[in-house]
Predict the structure.
Amino acid sequence: MTNILIAISLGYFFGSIPFSFLIAKNLVGIDLRFFGDKNVGASNVVRAAGRKAGAFAFCGDVLKGIVPILICQYGLKFSFPLLVISGLSAIIGHNEPIFLKFKGGKGMSTAIGVITMLAPIESAILLIPFFLIYFFLKKAIISAVIVSFILPLICYFLKKPLEVILGLIIILVFCYINSSGNIKKIIKQLWVKS
């Protein structure tokens, strides 16, 4: 029970660090909670402060998913289910950060960090199809959604343990549900353009 609480606390704490908010606020004095799509994430930083600032915000948000799992896996030697719990907690922390009165982002960048830690080789394999799809659609979130459907299959064919596959599916489903509004909006935009 103690290990579960530590995994949750570590994930949520790191996930709650509002890199995107801090970057936009310090560079251009904009509070992302009241700007653009009101999402405290890298895409809104691009709107507020430009692509370079957005890239830094993206890296910070990805790190929020990586660091707690690194600590749990190599520092505390936690089992894989606890790594999944810590990763989910990091995503929830990004979405509902205590430092910003529980008003955060959608969790996609942090989820990328979490998934990369849980399945590094499989995630690297997906980079090629991701960039190919992104080249045509120019929409990172849709490209990520499309390739993420393949991830559990790759893990299965590479004979990853069942707990890895189930953990990834749980995280992916959580992200889809949380980002469903944005995904539908982007699909509608792409449909209209075509």
